[in-house]
Write a structure and sequence with these properties.
mainly alpha, Cytochrome Bc1 Complex, Chain C, 207 residues, globular
Length: 207
C-alpha cells in the first residue's frame, strides 16, 4: 500500500494546470528525495573501499582518492549531495511553514517531516567521523561534549562513544548508524511521508 501510493504520488493520473506551476511546491520534497537516492548509490560504491577501523579508515580514504579511478569524484559527490540534501529539506520545511501546510489534517505528516529533518542532520553527523582525519575527530569530539549539556545527553553519549571518540567500538557504531540504521529509517519514513501526502489529499487536490 505505501509503495503503491508512493508510485502514484510520483506519477498521478491527473494534474490540474494551476498545480503545474513551479511556485506551487518548488519541487523541494522530490528534489530532496532524489538527493537522498544519489547519496545511497554513491555511499554503496564507497563501501567497497572503506575500512571502518581506527588504523585503516583514513588510509582507505587516501587510497580511494589517489589510486581508485573516479574515487575522488565519487567521494566529493557523496559529500556535496549530503549538503544539498540538508539545504533542500530545510527549504522544504520553510515552505511548509510559510504556506501553512502543517495544519489539519496534516499534523502527523508534519511530525514525520520534522523527524526526517532531524534524522538527516544526524546522518550527516555520523558520516563526519568516518574519514577519521583531525577535522573529523575534533568536530565529533566537540559534538559529543555539547551533547552532555542536554537532558539525557550523557546517556546518549555513552551509547554512541562507549570507549571514547576515535576508538574502535565508537567508529564501528557510527559506521553502522551511517550506512544501515539511519538510512533505512529515513527510507521508511520517506515512504510513510509520501503515503500520508496521498492519504490527506488536501495537500494536492488532484490526488
Amino acid at each position: 500500500m505505501i509503495f503503491t501510493d508512493f508510485l502514484k504520488h510520483l506519477f498521478p493520473r491527473v494534474v490540474p494546470e494551476r498545480n503545474l506551476r513551479f511556485t506551487y511546491t518548488f519541487c523541494l520534497g522530490g528534489l530532496a528525495f532524489s538527493a537522498f537516492l544519489i547519496m545511497l548509490l554513491s555511499g554503496m560504491l564507497l563501501l567497497v573501499y572503506y575500512q571502518p577501523t581506527p588504523e585503516r579508515a583514513f588510509n582507505s580514504i587516501l587510497f580511494l582518492e589517489s589510486s581508485v579511478w573516479g574515487g575522488k569524484y565519487l567521494r566529493s559527490l557523496h559529500r556535496l549531495t549530503s549538503h544539498t540534501l540538508l539545504v533542500l529539506i530545510l527549504l522544504h520545511t520553510v515552505r511548509v511553514i510559510l504556506t501553512g501546510a502543517y495544519q489539519r489534517p496534516r499534523q502527523l505528516n508534519w511530525v514525520i517531516g520534522c523527524l526526517l529533518l532531524f534524522l538527516a542532520l544526524f546522518e550527516a553527523y555520523t558520516g563526519y567521523l568516518l574519514p577519521f582525519d583531525q577535522l573529523a575527530f575534533w568536530a565529533t569530539q566537540t559534538g559529543m561534549e555539547l551533547m552532555t549539556t542536554l537532558p539525557f545527553g550523557t546517556f546518549f553519549r555513552s551509547l554512541l562513544v562507549p570507549d571514547g571518540v576515535g576508538q574502535g567500538l565508537s567508529l564501528l557504531r557510527f559506521y553502522a548508524l551511517h550506512i544501515v540504521i539511519v538510512p533505512l529509517t529515513l527510507l521508511t519514513l520517506s515512504s510513510l511521508h509520501f503515503y500520508r501526502v496521498r492519504k490527506n489529499k488536501g495537500v494536492l487536490p488532484y490526488l
